[in-house]
Amino acid sequence: MNSQYEVLSPWAEADPVPLRGISPRLTDLAGKKIGLLSNSKRASRPILTVVGQKLKERFPDCEISWYDAWGTYHTPYWVLQVESEHKNKFEEWVGGIDAIIHATGD
To answer: What's the pTM?
Structure first.
């Protein structure tokens, strides 16, 4: 009984992505460009509409920029933005934003 077993790691070999940490928090939203990222859930846009109104009341000189990221039931909407024909549009939008507020709308 000379049984041998090969032990495999459950981790796949992948190119490591260097950790960056989170972006520093903004100290103030005055004069900033705030992105409202809405997904395909029904309540997402109404939630963000109210958030945008409240932001403009509190910070009248902030700019609001919308991005509707529509997905399908089986495909997460963010995948559709970064791995599709929408990639350039999405990256251009993100590049001009100081902060993003996202709503799922469940």
So the answer is: 0.70
